[in-house]
Design a protein that fits this description.
The protein is an alpha+beta fold. It is built from 2 helices and 9 strands, in the order ααβββββββββ. It has a 6-stranded antiparallel beta sheet. The protein has a 3-stranded antiparallel beta sheet with strand order 2-1-9, with no helix packed on it.
């Protein structure tokens, strides 16, 4: 993991246009289109921008929404929650705690034990197989 987040210039060179749009411009990929929504390998889902580990495969579940869903981050400080009042809704945005990359949103309709559903864009993730 880098000691400081990558610069915008570095990210524009490193990321695909879709990854950049989602992570830096707070975009959302279409449902059922991302590479990880129906992904079942064991391993770690990391931030595509900085490599910070975010979600373990053991915390992933099938939400039926078309996006990868997790009930808990890998550690308490892996992600930050931010109030999001865009699009006429009140939601909670989830960002990488290291580089502030937009990941998706968290909702209170997930399974036990947390009751949370971290609805995350595949374009914001890089999978590392266990």
């Amino acid at each position: 993991m880098p000691t400081q987040p990558p610069s915008d210039k570095e990210l524009r060179q490193k990321l695909t246009p879709e990854e950049y749009r989602v992570t830096r411009e707070k975009g959302t990929e279409p449902a059922f289109c991302g590479v990880y929504w129906n992904h079942h390998e064991k391993g770690m889902y990391c931030c595509v921008c900085c490599g910070t580990p975010l979600f373990g495969s053991e915390k992933k579940f099938e939400s039926g929404t078309g996006w990868p869903s997790y009930f808990q981050p890998v550690t308490e400080g892996a992600v930050k929650n931010i109030v999001d009042n865009s699009h006429g809704m009140k939601r909670t945005e989830v960002v990488c705690s290291t580089c502030d990359a937009h990941l998706g949103h968290v909702f209170e309709d997930g399974p036990p034990p947390t009751g949370l559903r971290y609805c995350i864009n595949s374009a914001s993730l890089k999978f590392e197989k266990a």
